[in-house]
Write a structure and sequence with these properties.
Pfam families: T2SSE (PF00437). With 465 residues, the protein is an alpha/beta fold. Helices cover 33% and strands 19% of the residues.
């Protein structure tokens, strides 16, 4: 009989004897709580787990914070020590209780506490912590309660501090917002009080240990085989491509797949705020921006890195996301012999992407007329790929749009492929549509031919809808 069974039996006995006093007077009158849906019931194994954890810290001490290069050995030692402590524990425990305590203590000491199982779960795409007791996950494009919680605000802050310190960053009252990453490349954003009013917020967007390939995106319905072959030709033919989309629409995943089309013999320089791209080519130089230190010095911006990348003899420059004056440097790179560059930005449509790009160029502080900016954009960008998260939770490429040029002071676009929303949904509510050619012949075919890449014209032939 485990600890949980013993406690249940004791509570039944007390109730039968007429003793209506609560088992834990300190918890008999809980105050108002902001706990979210799915908050778990009090854990009867909690006291045992905390006791084991304290003893573990006393026994191993500094070893828990040594260089994580020997992480496997440290985990083995932690598990061995926990097993010894459990063997000496007087509280009766079942084998299931012991396995659970061992896993939870290991996650707390070496991982990320109660959210560690969520980070290991391949069905979870994103983990959202809204204070210590309110945790949600995204599965299949849908949000749902996670059913786990932190012990308190201090517990959550320890996990946040552990994450950001690994990448040399900090978060406190003076600097209450931070972007970081996990060792596997997952993107992390943390916000702490006083900015976060209801407790610290932690958002983790997971990256697959095995990055999605173009075949995966075809299987998901994100794009078709026909459009995948076209995009491969566009990347190999050194077109400058912008991936546009909203938050969580799959921009970085699409950019990662496009980057995989770059030939292995070319030199690639990547620039990111938080390193997420997972390229398999050998000749890759990865650069990551850096926030200022405690004294407000030492910041290295994306714009600094883009300018520096131009001096590194790149064949391709891949910028994870442009969101400020770095857009001007990116356009100049595209216009000065660095064809084949790739980047992403936040926008809802290809036309909005151009407007966003104009705005970001103005953020560079250069007093440029709008017409000059538009001419720069029109000559630099060849293709815009619009990615959207649809109502059914799926992520689809909805537009493949060519930037044609300038006409009467306005950048002209033509859609080469559009997602067919008119196909409706199936019984499960998922969209049946796919990318369909519009029948327009792109003007970039000559550019592709100049780089030895040919695309069959029947790819762009519109068929029956």
């Amino acid at each position: 009989m485990g600890l949980s069974d013993h406690l249940s039996q004791r509570n039944r006995s007390s109730s039968a004897g007429g003793d209506r006093r609560p088992a834990n007077p300190a918890r008999s009158e809980p105050g108002p709580s902001r706990a979210g849906a799915g908050r778990p019931a009090p854990d009867p194994l909690g006291d045992v787990r905390q006791r084991i954890q304290r003893r573990l810290a006393e026994l191993l001490g500094p070893k828990l914070y040594d260089d994580m290069g020997a992480a496997d050995e440290l985990e083995l030692q932690v598990r061995r020590t926990v097993a010894e402590l459990l063997a000496a524990e007087e509280t009766p425990l079942t084998s299931a209780d012991r396995a659970r305590i061992t896993g939870e203590v290991t996650d707390e000491i070496l991982g990320h506490g109660p959210i560690e199982p969520l980070l290991r779960d391949p069905s979870v795409n994103e983990v959202m912590v809204n204070g210590p007791h309110n945790i949600y996950v995204e599965r299949g494009g849908r949000l749902e309660p996670a059913g786990v919680e932190f012990a308190d605000e201090a517990h959550l802050r320890r996990v946040i501090d552990r994450i950001v310190s690994r990448v040399g960053r900090r978060v406190d009252e003076a600097s209450p917002m931070v972007d970081a990453r996990l060792p596997d490349g997952s993107r992390v954003n943390a916000v702490v009080p006083p900015i976060a009013l209801d407790g610290s917020s932690l958002t983790i967007r997971k990256f697959s240990r095995d990055p999605f390939t173009v075949d995966d995106l075809i299987a998901f319905g994100t794009l078709t085989r026909q459009t995948a072959d076209l995009l491969r030709a566009c990347v190999r033919g050194h077109l400058n491509i912008v991936v546009s989309g909203g938050t969580g629409s799959g921009k970085t995943t699409t950019l990662n797949v496009l980057s995989g089309f770059v030939p292995a013999e070319e030199r690639i320089v990547t620039v990111e705020d938080a390193a997420e791209l997972q390229l398999h080519q050998e000749h890759v130089v990865r650069l990551e921006s850096r926030p200022p230190n405690v004294e407000g010095r030492g910041a290295v911006t994306t714009r600094d890195l883009v300018r520096n990348a131009l001096r590194m003899r790149p064949d391709r420059i891949v910028v994870g996301e442009v969101r400020d004056g770095a857009a001007l440097d990116m356009l100049q790179a595209m216009n000065t012999g660095h064809d084949g560059s790739l980047t992403t930005l936040h926008a809802n449509t290809p036309r909005d992407a151009l407007a966003r790009m104009e705005t970001m160029v103005l953020m560079a502080g250069m007093d440029l007329p709008v017409r000059a900016i538009r001419e720069q954009v029109a000559s630099a960008v060849h293709l815009i790929i619009q990615v959207s998260r649809l109502q059914d939770g799926s992520r689809r490429i909805t537009h493949i749009t060519e930037v044609v040029g300038m006409e009467s002071g306005v950048i002209t676009l033509q859609d080469l492929f559009l997602f067919d929303l008119r196909a409706g949904t199936d019984a499960a509510g998922r969209f049946r549509g796919k990318l369909q050619p519009t029948g327009l012949r792109p003007r970039v075919l000559e550019h592709l031919a100049a780089h030895g890449v040919t695309v069959p014209l029947d790819v762009f032939q519109a068929g029956p809808r």
